[in-house]
Amino acid sequence: MQAAVLRSFDLPLQIEDVTLAAPRDREVMVRIKATGVCASDLSTIRGKTGSDLPLIPGHEAAGVVERCGPGVSKVKPGDRVVLSWAPNCGQCFYCQHSHPTLCDTYVGAAVSGGLWDKTSRLGPTQSPLNHYSCVSSFAEFAVVPEAGCILIPDDVPFAVAALVGCAVTTGFGAVVNDASVRPGDSVAVLGVGGVGINALQAAALSGAETVIALDTNPAKAETALLNGATHFLNAADPATPDALRALTHGRGVDHAIECTGRPTAMSAAYALTRPAGTVVIVGIAPKGTDLTIPAIGFPGSKKRLIGSIYGGGIPESDITRILSLYRAGRLNLDTQIGARIPLSRVNDALTWLEQGVLARTMIEFP
Ligand SMILES: [Zn+2]
Ligand SMILES: [Zn+2]
Question: Of 3, 258, 269, 296, which residue is the least packed, with the fewest Cβ within 10 Å?
């Protein structure tokens, strides 16, 4: 099959002919139809997360089941599926304690660059390529754990399903599961990007009265307001903290959702949250950086500072719920998709992402 391979952090992705082994026990081969280019792909490709090479990136994807390995009962060839980038085992400590996104089996696989058994199906046996988050969708096909396949209704376009596979679920879940926003609350979303847009929509859908979008790029105001923000503030403006407090009875917001991955924005999210409020950190910071907050005030602030990965809930049920809301017209996902390109132009999509182009680039396969 054709795949985009990362062999060096200093080189563009290379389109190569790659061998793909048959699915093993409880694994599924999926023909990829659409895969989004996400900021996490970009961080990995630029070497900010310290991944082992060579690998095939791509983790926000949907497609059609091509072939099933032994013991697969959840899906059959021809089924339309979205892929989870954190397929969980259901058996380990974290799966049994309501934190499936922390699944030991999945995390072990992701760190190893393999699937659940920590071996690769990509490339010849003597020189395998690493999988990326048990997906590796910058390729015509992927072999994934059965648990990573989530059925999608026939009327949901593959590109929309792919988007729900990462950005939508991450932003939606941060608001609904981790912040538990309630009607009448105030919410700040830092970073109007692929995830932040979905945090804004989820805050509006949850009945938040005040939804404040913050970004250092004022050109993002229009998009923020179209996606549920009631206000937009320029995060680079020194007057912004006072402006935010003026919108929240002088207290700060009930919930801040940090979606930029910049440690300075994480500190700002903490500072902009009212006492006893909730700070949710979603953005992935570069390896080796620290988050700093004033220690002296922390006990008395009673703030909750929590990390959120993949929406913090049960990805499979969240994805199913989000697709239902989309079909009911309650979430606007179509306008989040921008350019649709073939795999051969994947490096263009990475450049656009670095330049801050807002809409998601979708790689589509005929
Ligand atoms: Zn992603
Ligand atoms: Zn598990």
Answer: 296
Q: Model confidence over 287-315: pLDDT tens digits?
A: 899 999 999 999 999 999 999 999 999 99
| β-pairing verdict for 27-36 and 360-364 | antiparallel
Number of CB atoms found within 10 A of residue 236's CB = 11
Q: Which ligand is nearest to the CA of 360?
A: 1
If DSSP codes are grouped into helix, strand and coil, which group holds residue 295?
coil
Cα(273) to ligand 1 centroid in Å equals: 26
- Residue 46, token pair as written in the block: 């630029």
Cα of 108 vs centre of ligand 2, distance in Å, is 10
Second-level CATH architecture of 171-307: 3-Layer(aba) Sandwich (3.40)
* CB contact at 8 A, 40 and 86: no
Cα–Cα distance measured from residue 90 to residue 7, given in angstroms and rounded to the nearest whole number: 33
Maximum separation of any 2 CA atoms in the chain, in Å: 64
The DSSP letter of residue 321 is: H
- Tens of pLDDT, residue by residue over 254-298, are 999 999 999 999 999 999 999 999 999 999 998 899 999 999 999
C-alpha span between 82 and 164 (Å, rounded) = 8
| Domain 2-151+333-364, CATH homologous superfamily name and number | Medium-chain alcohol dehydrogenases, catalytic domain (3.90.180.10)
